[in-house]
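INFO batch 0412 | record 1 of 1 | parsing
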Amino acid sequence: MNEQTANPYNMMIELGRLIRNTNFEPKDAPDELFNYFSALSQMMEGRSVKEFFSVFPPIKRYEDDGIWNYYATIEEIAEMGTEFTKESFQHLLMKHCYENKYMQCLGLAFMDCTSQLYKRKSGRSIMEEWAIDNCITVYEKRNGEILPKLYTVK
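INFO prediction complete | emitting C-alpha cells
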C-alpha cells in the first residue's frame, strides 16, 4: 500500500467513489468489504474526531422533523470525545453520518456486507432476525407461495 492509499480518508473516498460510480455491489464481495472496513476502523482508532468532521462535514439540515438534523449531529460529535475508537468509528458509519454524501454510501455498504455475512452464517438477514425476535411477521402465504410480507407505510 502506498502512503496515499494507506490514508484512511483517501480509502473512504476511493471506496465511496467505487460504490457510487460503478456497478460495485457490497453483496458481491462481502468478505473483502468487511476486511476493508475492519482495516479502516483500525486506522481510525486514535484519530481526531474534529479532523474527521473537517474532512467529512455533516450536511447542515436544520429542520427538526424527528429523523435527523444538524443539531443532533453536533450533540453526537460532542459525545464522541476527542479521538475515535474502533467501535465509535463503526457506530458512526452505521448510525450518524447518513446525511453526509460521502459517508452515506459507506455506512450502507458496511451494513449490507455485515448483513450478507450474517445471512450466509445463519440463513437469515440481520433485519429478518430482528423482526422475528420482535414478533413481526416476515413471510406470508400468497397465491400458494411463501413470500415476504408486505406492509403499507403511512
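INFO post-check: The chain has eight helices and two strands.
INFO record closed
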